[in-house]
Amino acid sequence: IAETLGENEDSESWFRRLAQLRLTTYGPRSEDTISSLRHLSEAMLSQRRYSESEELLWVMVNLAKTSFKSTDRATAKLTCSQARLMFEQGRFEDAETLWRMSLEIAKTYWGSEDSIALKAEAGLACALKSQGRLAESEALLRRNVEKLMRVRGKNSLSASKSMWYLGSLLMKEGRYEDAAIWWKKCTKIRLLRLGPTDQAAFETFSLLGKCYFKLGRYSDTLKSGQEWLEAVKKVSGLGHEYVNELESWLETMVTEKL
């Protein structure tokens, strides 16, 4: 739960305790142990502790080489984690290679709609986007979103993440109308699943507002802002940090654009 909510310090604490328990119970070569250590490494990565995360990952990779086949799920998941580490450090070509490797293994042995394949596909699309290969990235993301909605459900957070990537790509190309469609879908899911005071949900809403603004759809911008403000007030009252931000933004919209 902490990992899903982006509470990285709590996530690290829980995964560290779980890893210690599994190390004691199952030993270092257990798939369950390696899974816990992988999540621990990703919690460190989310806090930008790259060297610690990389060191732990390489220990796990060496364990996996002597404990599992290259086609085992544990190995494919570790490859995804390595790819994410490369990506976060700006090593996009290395990330592409690792995500592509994981994707091909997953597609071959478990199918294109397997959870590892879907994660690797989204990661690969991000690596391609970061290298300026936007058409390839867009095609992958559109397929990824369709599969995630079919496999995980139309309101899944996994689908919303790929929608976010797609909206970001389209916005970068100046295709604001298309971007607004995906930002709106992503905002709807995150509002439903995470609530109006969640940082990721609020960020997505803000990007949708920017798209509307770029398109000159000021009344849509105002309407969505007012609805979000009421949702925040309903959940957290007047004291939440987003209330002042939204009220200031709405006042600017009314005085300058409407």
Summary tags:
258 residues
Structure commentary:
The protein is mainly alpha-helical. Helix content is about 80%, strand content about 0%. It has 12 helices and no strands. The termini are far apart. The model has no long low-confidence stretch (mean pLDDT about 90).
Assembly form of the protein = single chain
Largest sheet report? none
Which percent range describes the beta-strand content?
Answer: under 5%
Estimate the global geometry from the Cα principal axes: globular
**Structure summary, number of beta strands:** 0
Assign a percent range to the helix content: over 70%
What's the Cα radius of gyration? 20 Å
Order of helices and strands: HHHHHHHHHHHH
Number of helix segments? 12
Poorly predicted runs of 5 or more residues: none
Secondary-structure class: mainly alpha
Terminal Cα separation, in Å? 42 Å
Q: Average pLDDT across residues?
A: 88
Topology:
Layout: H1 8-26, H2 31-46, H3 50-67, H4 73-88, H5 92-110, H6 115-130, H7 134-152, H8 157-172, H9 176-194, H10 199-214, H11 218-236, H12 241-257
Helix pairs in contact: 1-2, 2-3, 2-4, 3-4, 4-5, 4-6, 5-6, 6-7, 7-8, 8-9, 9-10, 10-11, 11-12
